[in-house]
Specification:
Length: 289
């Protein structure tokens, strides 16, 4: 049975535009979705990321969030005939507050997978409470000391680590030291669930806001590593994949390391299989082969 990927919209965050794309419209507020991804068709269902713990935790940092009950993990899973207990693995692109806040809603028999260096960084305090939440990190530590509740991935950029057949992870870095890409083998090609190394496909990749060199991406305004590390992470994510699936924007269809089409309706459609190229709308007609 072929692997399929569905977007799970867990709510929205409103924040300064320059926090997403470097130097873009400082002071202007923009609203972005918080997406998880459900992978089905393999040995067992996998959920990539779990969203935020509460909407109110953003207020101290000048942000706001919207997490309606109808966008809860339970309701999304029910649309696919699943419950939380059915999820075999939760895989984290990274451990920021908007990516691992609902881990404690899953039983300890669901194995949470993340890069070891990401857990180290989350516990280090270097990024402060705006990015990593104490309750989230404490829950991950609880899993660390519970048999089979946590799987630490030691990808270092030299190899990929398999979660199950057809699903592997690769270190991307850039955004955080332990940011990873989840690579899914689908009938339509490799899908890269890339987390936050790309926030806005249009302003970073399709028509880069700041950069004029050929195929040079504009970086985000929120990263823990260097400019070069993030540019490298973005280029690595684009190389060899057919579908680019960021956590806060509509999926992109990739040809020759270039975004050629977008699946704009996928953000609001949890039943959309984002591995079907025919569902994507061309960015420019001349780009699509």
């Amino acid at each position: 049975m072929a692997l399929k990927i569905y977007p799970i919209n867990l709510g929205t965050i409103t924040l300064d535009a320059s926090g997403l794309v470097l130097f873009r419209n400082p002071g202007q507020k923009v609203t972005i979705p918080t997406l998880a991804f459900l992978i089905t068709g393999g040995d067992a269902p996998i959920l990539v990321d779990t969203g935020s713990r509460t909407a109110s935790q953003y207020e101290a940092f000048g942000m706001s969030a919207y997490q309606p009950d109808e966008w809860s993990i339970d309701r999304h899973l029910a649309r696919h005939g699943l419950r939380r207990n059915d999820i075999r693995y939760v895989v984290h692109t990274h451990a920021h507050v908007d990516h691992c806040g609902a881990d404690d809603q899953f039983p300890m028999t669901t194995t949470v997978c993340m890069a070891r260096r990401e857990l180290e960084f989350a516990a280090s305090g270097l990024m402060g409470p705006a990015m990593y939440a104490a309750q989230d990190t404490k829950h991950l530590i609880d899993r660390l000391y519970t048999r089979d509740a946590l799987r630490l991935l030691d990808v270092d950029g030299t190899f990929d680590e398999e979660i199950m057949p057809g699903v592997a992870v690769r270190l991307s870095g850039g955004h955080t030291p332990g940011s990873i890409s989840i690579l899914v083998e689908t009938d339509g090609g490799i899908a890269n669930i890339c987390g936050d190394i790309v926030y806005n496909v249009e302003d970073q990749l399709t028509t880069p806001l700041l950069d004029h060199n050929y195929r040079e991406p504009t970086i985000t305004g929120n990263r823990a590593l260097s400019t070069l590390a993030e540019k490298t992470a973005i280029k690595r994510a684009m190389a060899g994949c057919r579908f680019l699936l960021p956590s806060h924007d509509a999926p992109g269809l990739v040809e020759d390391s270039t975004i050629v089409a977008r699946h704009n309706s996928a953000i609001d459609d949890p039943t959309a299989d984002v591995t079907k190229a025919a569902q994507y709308d061309a960015v420019r007609a001349d780009l699509v082969a």
